[in-house]
Amino acid sequence: MNCLEKRILKNGIVKNANVLKVDSFLNHQIDIKLLQEMALEWQYRFKDIEINKILTIESSGIAISAIVASVFNVPLVYAKKEKSQTIEDDFYKASVFSFTHNVENNIIVKRDYLSEDDNILIIDDFLANGCALEGLIEICNQANANIKGIGIAIEKGFQDGGRKIRNIGYRLESLAIIEKMSDKEIIFRK
Amino acid sequence: MNCLEKRILKNGIVKNANVLKVDSFLNHQIDIKLLQEMALEWQYRFKDIEINKILTIESSGIAISAIVASVFNVPLVYAKKEKSQTIEDDFYKASVFSFTHNVENNIIVKRDYLSEDDNILIIDDFLANGCALEGLIEICNQANANIKGIGIAIEKGFQDGGRKIRNIGYRLESLAIIEKMSDKEIIFRK
Q1: Torsion-angle region of A120 (φ positive above 0: left; ψ -120 to 50: alpha; else: beta)
Q2: Is residue B79 one of the residues assigned to a domain?
Q3: Which of A2, A91, B92, B95 could anchor a disulfide with A108, C-beta 3.0 to 4.6 Å?
């Protein structure tokens, strides 16, 4: 059991069949030492790939990605959420439905910051149905950037995002994959 | 001239009398090495104070603060923006007017993550009129947390936020203070 799985068992709070609150250590109050351990784990798992940029999405992916970028010694780009429908031509754009907030957002990345010369590691905190991740992949595809890997902190293995992404052929490394959870227990995938 | 001032001269874009775009290195694409140098500069300037937590506000403060928290070896808490007027009792709350988006937002921090035992360093990317910073200070005051220092990346010295905050007595360390700017030149305060 790795450091993140242990921490989820210690401080994660299961609110209902779908919601796991980790805001005491991952996305409101943030344990930077835990993030450093997670970044080192991804560095180990992705030691055979060459990347030159980390890509994530605001807001909850930013802190993790900053520490990962620091360990990989590369710049970070984060996609911004933009409710406005009028987006200038100098942005890549993808539409992402948020089940949490029941709203469709555009996510955007300025064209200057992604190109076919980029070898990307995508990082995010959660993977459930995969909508946000598909938006980031879509933006990389628009830029002809190469997605070398995807690092997720917590994958909800009982939703179908991870299966979809792996089936397309992406190399996806989730540090904690939850097989099932209830207020009684959390079971991780081996 | 420090690393941030040099970088602003090299890559900052003055859009009009009030708007400086730094999204190629500070708040959309992020140069992590620059952030590490900035964090070390704050560590030097605040070497006489003891802190146990960094506080910032989403989204553009998070990446800088994560690197600062990493250098200071303390946890990070970021205030969330919340448009909903119905906020649960377990949050500190302050109202912040955004001149950029011409909208009033609530910013919130869960009560569990700030208390009178906390010695806080507030970090943010920009200081102009000081509204966001006053919101963070208000939240610290609600929690009876001790604000030991405030670190700002870029202060617009021609707006009155910095003067107000220093007049209250806070120790404010801005890495680049812009005295005046135009599309021809950017002048920093000595």
Answers
A1: beta
A2: yes
A3: A91
Which ipTM did the prediction report?
0.97
Rounded mean pLDDT of B130-151? 98
Type of residue numbered B5:
E
* Cβ separation A63–B66 shorter than 8 A: yes
Confidence of residue B14 (pLDDT cuts 50, 70, 90): very high
The enclosing domain of B77 has a CATH number of 3.40.50.2020
Smallest CA–CA separation between A55 and chain B, in Å?
Answer: 9
Establish if A58 touches chain B: CB-CB under 8 angstroms.
Answer: yes
In chain A, what is the straight-line distance between the N-terminal and C-terminal CA atoms, in Å? Answer: 9
Chain A CB contacts of B76 below 8 Å: 29-30, 32, 63
Q: Global pTM?
A: 0.97
Q: Is residue B6 domain-resident?
A: no
Q: Pairing mode, if any, of strands B172-181 and B186-188?
A: antiparallel
Q: What is the pLDDT of residues B50-65, one digit of tens each?
A: 999 999 999 999 999 9
- Interchain pair B62, A59: CB under 8 A: yes
Whether residue B137 lies inside any domain: the answer is yes
State the residue range of the domain holding B168.
Answer: 32-180
Q: Tell me how many domains chain A contains.
A: 1
- B21 lies in a domain? no
Q: Do β-strands A172-181 and A146-156 pair in parallel, antiparallel, or remain unpaired?
A: parallel
